[in-house]
Amino acid sequence: MTRLRVGVDVRPALWHATGIARVARETFRALRRREDVEAHGFARAWRRPRADLAPLGAGVVRGRIPARVQRVLGLAADDALGGVDVFHHLDLVYAPVRAAQQVVTIHDLVFLDDNDWHPPGFRRDVEQRVRAAAARAAALVVPSERVAADVVRHGMARARDVHVVAHGVDHIDATPQPDDGALVEAALQRARLRRPEVLVVALGTREPRKNHEAILDATEARPDGRAALLLVGPRGWGVPQLEERLAAAATRSDARVATTGEVDEPTLAALLRTADVVAYPSFAEGFGLPVFEALRCGRAVVTSTNTPMSDLAGDAVITVDPHDPRALAAALEDLITSAATRDELGAAARQAVAHLTWDRAASALVDIDRALVEHCPGAHARPTPNT
Length: 387
Description:
This protein is an alpha/beta fold. Helices cover 38% and strands 16% of the residues. It has helices spanning 20-32, 67-73, 77-80, 122-136, 145-153, 180-191, 212-220, 240-249, 265-274, 289-296, 308-313, 325-337, 339-352, 358-375, and strands at residues 4-9, 37-44, 60-63, 86-89, 101-105, 139-142, 162-164, 198-203, 227-232, 257-261, 277-280, 300-304, 318-320.
């Protein structure tokens, strides 16, 4: 079988650890592990990589050239990689591609349905780019059936041209490690939070869509100090009241809520392996990777109905309407007060996500890539520069 030459836009992984960056990093690594693929990472960008992030390894082409300059000068990503059969776009800033077949991953289209969840101007800036990229693509990839339906509903592609490829979660080692306790204790100390009897962890950037304030309300309304809430993730946008409450809590010695901000990979994994409850009642997601990371580690999870999380996790999670704060509070109360419920969910959790591996995702992508190349041998994508 002919070895495929595949390009992957890994630029998000230069600056971030989670979200799209996670998908880019793990997709590239999984493709690099395959013997039937010669994978090359495209990392040409002006901004310098974050020094604290793990290197992407061999096969990455770098260079400090602003994206706008690349577009204006027509510096094609596939040319920079020495020519590839297929180029995978995994970011919202699309690299110019001259000749390769283009596969575009659309992580979600939430911004088209509720503009209040994103910074001002986000839809205006992004929608045109996404639609143009989708129109140029030989194939579209999405992480869930719900995103596939949104792509069709918004007129970006026909259903037959959209491929659902679920993300992997095996980048998280679910095996308890000797230093887990020390890492978690250090994170709690930095957050100025005493170790509670029941630790509730909420993951994700602090932004309106994640619904963090509802979890905070439920935790602070409890009559005893048995549980505490730790928000894990960077500060985002659009939640000034949440930030004020977190700042006020940080000044109290008896606080039951706190934030670590963004943490490194070992600390994140330790928190996922040791948290008693993981809460992720997001209003909308394209996939909801933190839920599945928590399930891989055997955690008891409460998340949202009518989302990819509830679709894929099934009975391994407790689901609530994220617009119903009373339902969320009741679900959290059940998990906080019932070790038996936590244990029952934890027992089902790992099996629910056992099939979600990055090698499986990479295999699905290679099938898509090979079908494109075999269907149009020697064919080139339209050379119009990406916007």
